[in-house]
Amino acid sequence: MVREEALTPYQGKYRAFEYFYCEECEKEWASANSWANCYQVCKECDLCVYPYKQHRLKQRKGTKKKKTKSHPAELCQRCIDTGTN
């Protein structure tokens, strides 16, 4: 089995919450839809940015699901690679 190089702090197989920082334009953002070793594209300068901090999402029991912003699939590596965008 070939092991992929760790490009992100989180190496689990489930979706994660992550924090991004683009060094080029100094923009910061967070996303609740990321995966291990996947980047998101910076909206400002169009660079691929890997998260600097991640943690696995925890399912809350007995709470209502919050309405969230739509996921920008065109900026997500996993969506781009799987053709979900």
UniProtKB/TrEMBL annotation:
Keywords: Metal-binding, Zinc, Zinc-finger. It comes from Chionoecetes opilio. GO terms for molecular function: zinc ion binding. Residues 15-82 form the 3CxxC-type domain. InterPro entries: ZAR1/RTP1-5-like_Znf-3CxxC, ZCCHC24_Znf-3CxxC. This is Zinc finger CCHC domain-containing protein 24.
